[in-house]
């Protein structure tokens, strides 16, 4: 697995921490999925020394604060600085939302905020689209990791533009990339890993499942399966049938 | 001479004192702020007795005990037994199907107007006919009155369990500072909209801004409630107010004309599993962690505490370790 700002993750699964029925269920989801990163939103939960932060810290995984729900560069930068102080990490998942309904990134604001934060010593994980031009600009602005979307946040649609994501992966073979947002099923996560992405990040698919811990475990297994398959050099699809058992020597009846 | 001292006159402490009286004991009730009021989170509750709806995300124990809550409350306050209506906007009907899968005790309603004429055109819904609601402030007053009738007043004083001899029930909520207890912020609005008639609580399922509306007397409605993992005690935020009002407006545009009577924000005490507990610490029983189920679970919690004190019965909400 490619390293994220010098950090090798124990597993390629990042889980969000919102929307669970209770912190106890959240803890079970982390335990059963073996996720190695917890993302946490600072937009609505300001303030220090809070019990919920303690719960996140006690998960014993890397914490990736995010700027969820920020619609402007200024908001995102302020939130990032707050997060750095609160969690004592330079990591920041940068969201600059451009559209209230689709929650798709604002590419212009994202690029500007990436530059500002990278110059300030942040290690930026920009939430972006599969657009290659934008990806190149984000890297030039100082990002060393990309987080392309699978599909709109919370939609559960999976990899909405598989071709575009494949091309993005191929265009920047050395850049660690995380598929972030829109995954609904473990098969979507496997798909992302099979395409060569380094990790996946999800929240709703687990937190809002009827049994979040079981779904978390399923996602944990799914990323493992996808990563194994990718490393095993999968066969190329063929249009012609090829028998898997030898026909030589059998009676032709 | 009191047999048991109860500290905290919120919904948990009042219920504990009341249940002690019913069991033939003499409680003494102490609260640092005196009788119930805006200083306690019980004041800001919705007052829904909706154990089956809550079952969509809460542990099964909440539904099991909550099912008895309406009957327990009927002895001390007026309980309105008209069920709960759960609705979703047409584009969110998937939310309704999911909610139906994860709950019991409901039936699908194709014609909402038959139940709530003012909701005609609000799409489809689920009807939980065994659920009920009450007015929390009237319910607190009912408990205070029931205790007064039994000679139990509320002494205003600072007290901690350590400074009091004999058996103590500690029902101070977050002020008890128990390990593992956290505050979960909730915000609510009280509106007066005399044009709108709803006879039962209505829950709007929405992927981003879920809402419930609880009717109170004289055209007043309670809109609630946010649930934010934060211990910020400041007043309701503009964002939350916008979201709550937008959701209400989507349900019935006449809410735009409503008079905003009150806004409230406070912290719900909760343990990691969001299930309340009777925690036994020697001669002290800690009743805490009622989360968003204060009115739903206070009777069961109080009765289990009293059963433990008087007969040594260890109910499923009692933790001895």
Q: Which helices and strands, and how do they pair?
A:
The complex is a heterodimer of chains A (253) and B (321).
Chain A: E1 13-16, H1 23-33, E2 37-41, H2 51-57, E3 62-66, H3 73-87, E4 91-94, H4 107-119, E5 123-128, H5 132-140, E6 147-148, H6 162-171, E7 178-180, H7 186-194, E8 199-202, H8 204-207, H9 212-231
Parallel strand pairs in A: 1-2, 1-8, 2-3, 4-5, 5-6, 7-8
Helix pairs in contact in A: 1-9, 3-4, 7-9
Chain B: E1 4-7, H1 11-22, E2 27-31, E3 48-49, H2 51-54, H3 60-66, H4 69-73, E4 84-88, H5 93-101, E5 107-109, H6 112-115, E6 125-128, E7 132-133, H7 136-149, E8 154-156, E9 168-170, E10 182-192, E11 202-205, E12 211-215, E13 220-224, H8 238-251, E14 259-270, E15 277-281, E16 284-288, H9 294-311, E17 318-319
Parallel strand pairs in B: 1-2, 1-9, 2-8, 4-11, 9-16, 15-17
Antiparallel strand pairs in B: 3-7, 4-6, 5-6, 10-13, 10-14, 11-12, 12-13, 15-16
Helix pairs in contact in B: 1-7, 1-9
What does this 3D model show about the protein?
The complex is a heterodimer of chains A (253) and B (321). Chain A is of the alpha/beta class and 253 residues long. In chain A, 39% of the residues lie in helices and 13% in strands. Chain A has one domain (13-232): TIM Barrel (Alpha-Beta Barrel), CATH 3.20.20.70. Chain A has helices at residues 23-33, 51-57, 73-87, 107-119, 132-140, 162-171, 186-194, 204-207, 212-231; strands spanning 13-16, 37-41, 62-66, 91-94, 123-128, 147-148, 178-180, 199-202. In chain A, strands 3-2-1-8-7 form a 5-stranded parallel β-sheet. In chain A, 45% of the residues are buried. With 321 residues, chain B is α/β, with parallel strands linked by helices. Chain B has 2 domains: 4-46 and 135-179 and 272-320, FAD/NAD(P)-binding domain; 84-129 and 182-269, 2-Layer Sandwich (D-Amino Acid Oxidase, Chain A, domain 2), CATH 3.30.9. Chain B contains 9 helices and 17 strands. Chain B has helices at residues 11-22, 51-54, 60-66, 69-73, 93-101, 112-115, 136-149, 238-251, 294-311; strands spanning 4-7, 27-31, 48-49, 84-88, 107-109, 125-128, 132-133, 154-156, 168-170, 182-192, 202-205, 211-215, 220-224, 259-270, 277-281, 284-288, 318-319. Chain B is globular, with a radius of gyration of 20 Å. At the A-B interface, helix 1 and helix 2 of A face loops of B.
């Amino acid at each position: 697995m490619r390293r994220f700002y010098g950090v090798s993750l124990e597993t390629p699964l990042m889980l969000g921490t919102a929307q669970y029925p209770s912190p106890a269920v959240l803890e079970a989801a982390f335990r059963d999925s073996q996720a190695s990163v917890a993302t946490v939103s600072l937009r609505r939960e300001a303030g220090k020394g809070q019990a919920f932060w303690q719960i996140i810290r006690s998960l014993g995984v890397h914490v990736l604060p995010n700027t969820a729900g920020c619609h402007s560069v200024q908001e995102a930068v302020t939130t990032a600085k707050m997060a750095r102080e609160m969690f004592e990490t330079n990591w920041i998942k940068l969201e600059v939302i451009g559209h209230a309904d689709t929650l798709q990134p604002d590419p212009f604001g994202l690029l500007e905020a990436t530059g500002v934060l990278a110059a300030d010593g942040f290690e930026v994980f920009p939430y972006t689209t599969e657009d290659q031009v934008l990806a190149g600009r984000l890297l030039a602005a100082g990002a060393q990791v990309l987080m392309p979307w699978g599909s709109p946040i919370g939609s559960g649609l999976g990899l909405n533009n598989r071709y575009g994501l494949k091309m993005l992966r191929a265009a920047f073979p050395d850049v660690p990339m995380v598929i972030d947002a829109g995954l609904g099923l473990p098969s979507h996560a496997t798909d992302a890993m099979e395409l060569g992405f380094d990790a996946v990040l999800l929240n709703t698919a687990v937190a809002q499942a009827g049994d979040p811990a079981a779904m978390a475990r399923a996602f944990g297994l799914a990323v493992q399966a996808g990563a194994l398959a990718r490393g095993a050099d999968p066969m190329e699809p063929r249009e012609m049938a090829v028998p898997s058992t030898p026909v030589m020597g059998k009676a032709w009846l | 001479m009191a047999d048991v001292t109860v500290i905290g006159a919120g919904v948990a402490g009042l219920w504990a004192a009341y249940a002690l009286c019913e069991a033939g004991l003499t409680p003494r009730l102490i609260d640092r702020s005196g009788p119930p009021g805006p200083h306690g989170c019980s004041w800001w509750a919705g007052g829904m007795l909706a154990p089956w709806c809550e079952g969509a995300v809460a542990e099964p124990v909440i539904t099991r005990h909550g099912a008895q809550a309406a009957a327990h409350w009927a002895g001390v306050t007026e309980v309105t037994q008209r069920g709960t209506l759960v609705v979703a906007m047409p584009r969110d009907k998937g939310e309704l199907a999911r909610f139906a899968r994860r709950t019991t005790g409901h039936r699908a309603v194709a014609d909402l107007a038959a139940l709530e004429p003012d909701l005609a055109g609000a799409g489809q819904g689920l009807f939980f006919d065994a659920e009920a609601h009450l007015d929390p402030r009237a319910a607190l007053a009912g408990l205070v009155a029931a205790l007064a009738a039994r000679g139990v007043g509320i002494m205003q004083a600072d007290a901690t369990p350590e400074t009091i001899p004999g058996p103590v029930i500690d029902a101070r909520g977050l002020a008890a500072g128990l390990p593992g207890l956290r505050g979960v912020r909730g915000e609510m609005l009280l509106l007066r909209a005399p044009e709108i008639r709803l006879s039962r609580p209505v829950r709007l399922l929405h992927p981003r801004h879920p809402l419930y509306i609880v009717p109170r007397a004289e055209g007043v409605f309670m809109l609630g409630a946010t649930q934010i993992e934060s211990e910020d005690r400041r007043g309701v935020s503009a964002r939350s107010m916008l979201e709550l009002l937008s959701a209400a407006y989507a349900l019935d545009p006449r809410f735009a004309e409503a008079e905003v009577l009150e806004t409230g924000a406070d912290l719900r005490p909760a343990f990691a599993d969001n299930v309340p507990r009777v925690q036994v610490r020697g001669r002290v029983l800690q009743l805490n962690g009622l989360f968003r189920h204060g009115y739903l679970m206070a009777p069961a919690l109080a009765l289990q505490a009293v059963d433990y004190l008087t007969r040594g019965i260890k109910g499923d909400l009692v933790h001895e370790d």
